[in-house]
Each structure stands twice: as C-alpha cells, then as structure tokens.
Amino acid sequence: MPRADTKDRILDAAEKLFAERGFDGTSIRMISSGAKVNLAAVNYHFQSKDALLDAVYERRAGPVNARRLALLDEFEAAAHGQPVPPERILEAFVRPVFELGDRVGHIPRMMVRMQYVERDSVVESIFDKHFRPVFSRLFAAMRRSLPHLSEEELFWRMQFMAGSFSHVAASGGALRVLAKGRVRKPEPEVVMQKLIQYSSAGLKEGKP
User: Fold this and answer.
1) Are the C-beta atoms of residues 28 and 57 closer than 8 Å to each other?
2) Which of the residues 25, 46, 106, 173 could staple to 19 if both were Cys, CB 3.0 to 4.6 A apart?
3) Least confident segment among 24-28, 95-99, 124-128
4) Could you give the angle at which helices 107-116 and 6-21 cross, rounded to 10 degrees?
C-alpha cells in the first residue's frame, strides 16, 4: 500500500483522537504526534483545530450525506408524488453507513461522543453545517408520510430512532460481546433491516 500523504495522515490521527478523547481533550500537538508530522504541517494544511474537525467530518460525512439524499431522491421519484413509506425514508438514512462499513472510520464513535457528551459551540456549529440540512430533508419526507403526527411528536420519535442507530453504529466490540452466545454473527444487511423494522414501528404506532 502506498503511504498516505501528509494531509490524510493528519486527518486519520485527528479522527481517531477526537473519537477517543473528544474535541477539547485533543490538542494539535497530540494530532501532529499521532500523524508523525510537525506542528507546522498541521497548521499549514488546516490552520486551526476547528477547521481540522470540520475537515474530518467533511471527509467521512460528506459521502454518507450525499448518498442519503440520492437514495431519498430515488425513493421519491419511485413514489410518483405520493408520500414515501417510513421504511424507505429510514433506509435512506441508515443504508449509506452500512454500505460503507469500515470506511466510515471512527466517525460513529466520534459523533456519539460529541453529540451526547460534549457541548462545545464549535461542535454544535459542525453538526449544524453537516447534518441539519440532511435531517431537515428527511424530516420533511417523514412529515408527509406520517401526517397524523404533530411536528413536535415526530421530532422526538425521530430522535429516539437516531439514538438507536447511533448505538448500533458506535457499539462495535461491546455489541459483539453482548451478542455472543445469543445470536449468530450478524450480517450488516440483516442488522440494518432489523433496525428499520424496529424504528418504523416506533415512528408509526401509538397515539400521537
């Protein structure tokens, strides 16, 4: 394998450290050490830790979000003006991550840590930039599909769905330990379909 260039090595090191230590707990010096480059190289390529975090998300989340929107476009075209079923909207949200597999890197763990543990204004601005537009599009499609739910009720149900997905995506080894002796080695497609089935039931059932 050819050696990754300096910029990719910095991104790899930053992603791993952000996932393990969080944004505030990671310094530029730690990143430069992990990437085996000098501090000047980090500053040259990214100027600041804030910009580096943004670049880490862009590299991993950019393709995922593009695929999500492409799938939703495909499902809406197939619906011929009718609301897209909730199961299809959920598939547009989760399938890209399952498709990419290991290529999503440390992003699921990093997202869980930063979304639920850290409350930094920089982190919030990154989420606003990279994820709010996609969430808004999925939310609008789900509102058409489930018009009997109020906007507030649907928002909370989608948050609970996203929490389930984050747990599955970020658990890694812990999930394998819990599953040992109880289920066969789960295939990604099977896990995805179970997650969609569970989430769609929670979104659709019960009183609004």
Assistant:
1) no
2) 106
3) 124-128
4) 50
CB atoms under 10 Å from CB of 174, counted, come to 10
CB atoms within 10 A of CB 186: 14
Enter the DSSP assignment of 48: S
The CA–CA distances, whole Å, from 25 to 17, 30, 124, 175 equal: 9, 10, 16, 26
CB 63 within 8 A of CB 100: yes
CA distance 1 to 147: 52
Alpha helices per DSSP H over 4-120: 6-21, 28-35, 39-46, 49-79, 86-100, 107-116
DSSP 22: T
One-letter amino acid for residue 137 of the chain: R
Q: CA 27, CA 74: separation in Å to the nearest integer?
A: 42
0.90 surpassed by pTM: no
3-state secondary structure of 14: helix
Question: How many other C-beta atoms lie within 10 A of the C-beta of residue 175?
Answer: 15
The mean pLDDT value of the chain amounts to: 85
Are the C-beta atoms of 170 and 111 separated by less than 8 Å? yes
The span from the CA of 166 to the CA of 134, in Å, is: 16
Measured from the Cβ of residue 83, the count of other Cβ atoms closer than 10 Å reads 16
Provide mean pLDDT across the span 34-53: 91
